[in-house]
Amino acid sequence: MNNFNLAIVSLLLPFVACSGGAKAGADATTSDAAEPADAGCDNELDCATWIQSYEREVVSKLSGHSEISPGTTLRSRFSIPERDASRDYIADELRAMGLSVELHNYGTGTNVFVRIPATVEGASLVLMGSHFDGIDDSPAAGDDGTGVALVLAAARYFSEKEERANELLFAVFDQEENGLIGSQAFAEKMRQEEPGLAAAHIFDLISWDEDQDGAVELWSADPGIEALYREVAAEEGVAIESVRFGSSDHASFIGNGFAAVGVSEEFVSGDNNPFYHTIDDTYENVNFDYLEYVSRFVFIVANRPQ
Prior knowledge:
This protein is about 40% helix and about 15% strand. The protein is of the alpha/beta class and about 300 residues long. A hairpin with a 4-residue loop joins strand 1 (about 100-105) and strand 2. It is globular, with a radius of gyration of 18 Å.
């Protein structure tokens, strides 16, 4: 058994025990929102047996593997109508979780965000974000359907969680592929309205792990955020690679003075999706076991004081 298999067994063992096994091979394209938790689970994360099937559903619809709405199948998420359809789907998913959706129209595009309060006094405000647009002529399943799937799964998980150590802001950004336009507008909004934002965790391209080591790459991480990731990684047996990289939405928050990090597969380190920015960035080429593994890891990180 290689290092990744050992690590994923460690993270998912309670989940497998409580659910009878992850749906790793399922082609889940229908909602399982009513799937009940197993009363025998030790905690909410162990009992979140729906994570992979839900993330598959999200990526499937965003990448044109299945209809995003009745009669509509996306070719890409590049044109204004395609981005509008993607945004509407994301907003509807968040509303279905019982969350109050806010739209941030900055002129050439529109971001979507929701808030979930903390359950403790004196909590920090923490952002989890990704971009929902893609390049032309690509289904953009990995880049960044996987990041959107993680953020939506995180919103669902924390909306159901009984105890939250942080106030959480979940955001999906428009026009990343056009020069980080959406996240730059949102970071400027936060600088003006929420200067106390403690940390921005931005997820981009979490789709590939050919060497199966389960490594998570941190892009230009704030030292305090990196220390938190390494602390949780040591507890959970997750490999961390820290690199300097600025071509994603985390750079918008760093540039506006916030502590931030980009979280990805080993894009800079070389174990990256070879179909990135091509017509073959499809649902079939996403490693959903790896996406679930990273999701479970960052859910733990996001619930630590920051």
